[in-house]
Amino acid sequence: MSRLTLALDVMGGDFGPRVTIPASILALQRDPQLSLILFGDSTQISPYLSDLPSDIQQRLQLNHCSRYIANDQDVTSALRHSKGSSMRLAIEAVQQGNAQGAVSGGNTGALMGLAKVLLQPLQGIARPALVASLPTMDGGKTIMLDLGANLECDAQNLYQFALMGNIFAQNQLDLVFPRIALLNIGVEAIKGRQAIREAATLLAQNTELNYCGFIEGNQLLNGVADVIISDGFSGNIALKTLEGAANNLISLLKGKTKNSILKPLFKGLMRLLLNDRYQRLKRINPDAYNGASLLGLTAVVVKSHGGANTEAFANAIADAATQARQQIPQQILAGLQRIT
């Protein structure tokens, strides 16, 4: 494992340093070759850094900045007034070569805008996309993009997402010929918007890609595709729907509902707790899948969920470290030159 430095916007997210600093310490404990540069308000951060082992202290660098970009701040305003903010300074550390990747749980639009301006998209990529891995029912993983960075996409955008997703899956999932599908409202060739149908034609024409057609929302976790492509609007809704459905199901199974009709209905599901298959599914920890990467940039940038807890944010840091060590941006650039 090679030595690595990451830059962290520790003021981003719903909880700021209360989560990001303990998560940073946890990440350092798990990865002895990792160093972190923390950008944020030292008055809020310092109390969490007292009485740390010398090994951890030596791999932490705190850069004070009192300004940060709020989660609900308008993107245009955030970008215009981003100078000196914790998010911008973290990305600038990557731009200047002081870190090999950045992690933030802050404003997604601002992070995307700053990353595009400061780090630049890879040659041949018009729009970077948010990508994340989803757990499948058979215990595997599926790569999905875009998850919210680009609300409207044309066929060429979707095609480029597929090219990047293909290379990302090869590296992250160790696959030789990943199965690629387009998220659509039906599996028939005549279904969907014109951009999706045109993208399907482009994908089918590229013999370097294993395009397997359209996929509907009810199959996202069924393992029928290794890479799922969508515009950011549809992808974000699909992801939030999955998260909400999972959380509601967990609440129902735990009896956290006042609905007298649903309670008896889900009593039967509790019996599945004794089923071996359910036991395997229960071990899927949502915190392990926190973090979406801004794919298509010249450096690694990982967006953590704003409401992430300590474990989840630590996993986002670990994900950024893995991608930086695997040199994912360079792998994508080389792959694009090979298959386009």
UniProtKB/TrEMBL annotation:
<dbReference type="Pfam" id="PF02504">
    <property type="entry name" value="FA_synthesis"/>
</dbReference>
<keyword id="KW-0443">Lipid metabolism</keyword>
<comment type="subunit">
    <text>Homodimer. Probably interacts with PlsY.</text>
</comment>
<comment type="pathway">
    <text>Lipid metabolism; phospholipid metabolism.</text>
</comment>
<keyword id="KW-1208">Phospholipid metabolism</keyword>
<dbReference type="InterPro" id="IPR012281">
    <property type="entry name" value="Phospholipid_synth_PlsX-like"/>
</dbReference>
<keyword id="KW-0963">Cytoplasm</keyword>
<keyword id="KW-0444">Lipid biosynthesis</keyword>
<keyword id="KW-0012">Acyltransferase</keyword>
<protein>
    <recommendedName>
        <fullName>Phosphate acyltransferase</fullName>
        <ecNumber>2.3.1.274</ecNumber>
    </recommendedName>
</protein>
<keyword id="KW-0594">Phospholipid biosynthesis</keyword>
<dbReference type="InterPro" id="IPR003664">
    <property type="entry name" value="FA_synthesis"/>
</dbReference>
<comment type="similarity">
    <text>Belongs to the PlsX family.</text>
</comment>
<dbReference type="GO" id="GO:0008654">
    <property type="term" value="P:phospholipid biosynthetic process"/>
</dbReference>
<dbReference type="GO" id="GO:0043811">
    <property type="term" value="F:phosphate:acyl-[acyl carrier protein] acyltransferase activity"/>
</dbReference>
<dbReference type="GO" id="GO:0006633">
    <property type="term" value="P:fatty acid biosynthetic process"/>
</dbReference>
<keyword id="KW-0808">Transferase</keyword>
<comment type="function">
    <text>Catalyzes the reversible formation of acyl-phosphate (acyl-PO(4)) from acyl-[acyl-carrier-protein] (acyl-ACP). This enzyme utilizes acyl-ACP as fatty acyl donor, but not acyl-CoA.</text>
</comment>
<dbReference type="GO" id="GO:0005737">
    <property type="term" value="C:cytoplasm"/>
</dbReference>
